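User: My collaborator sent over this chain with a note saying "see what the structure looks like." That's all I know about it. Can you take a look?
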Amino acid sequence: MKILVTGSAGFLGGHVARYLVGGGHEVKGFDAASSSDTAYESIIGDLLDTESVTAAAAGVDAICHLGAIGDVYLAAEQPQLAAAVNVVGSANVAIAAAEAGAKVVYASTWEVYGEPEYQPIDEDHPAKPDHPYNITKLAGEQLLLAADRLHGVPVTSLRLGTAYGPGLRANSVFRIFIDRASAGDPITIQGDGSQGRQFTYAADIATAFDVACQSDVHGIAMNIVAPDMISIKELAEIVVERFPTDLTFGEARPGDVPSALVSPALAEKILGWHAITPFAAGVEHLLEDASDTP
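Assistant: Without extra context I'll predict from the sequence alone. Here is the result:
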């Protein structure tokens, strides 16, 4: 397949683009930032420029749309920017897909559900986002699914678990813990550390995008999450075991997303997808990278 990956210069977009190349697809990347990756063609462009997005999508069979304001802290500080990129940018992807006759696989988030009303959360759970990040991600999802219903653009939305893997942003909890501990500095957990996440390895997420691109299924949102809930305290303890340092606790971060167990059953039923990377193995890759860094 010929596939365009938006957000290809970012952490997760880069993983998806490289995975698709490895699977034999012809890949183009599209991002506002330049990329040094030579495995695929990279196009510098703005999601807010309809003509640029449409030109990049010309001739492709599918668009993996990961381009977004994905940093929750940046989204909180600049909600107008998050609204522009995550909502208007997604509308432009829908326009480009319609022009190209391409399918769209959208990177949504499990955070669109908000405070859980029941657990495990399935796709029938109400979506009640409460933060500029997840509000705008849900709006982008809804615009794309509307394009599926109204304009015949095949769209599959993947509500992703908290992604991790090599190349994470410096302000991710993994990088903060590992960078501080490997430098001999103490780790501080915000709150009591009981808050949990279904950390999902980037390669497993990339597999889901590949499978969804090739599937005839569309007009649907599916949870793409690893099955196990891991607490922040458990993560910190794994890091401290490798890089011994002090582990302290501070005030809980205001607006932190509550723990919620999310079900990946629908994705396994429809796409045959399930996460295969155990958390311990995924974290080990990150720890090895830190150990090898001078």
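A starting point for your reply to your collaborator: Residues 55 and 91 are 15 Å apart (CA to CA).
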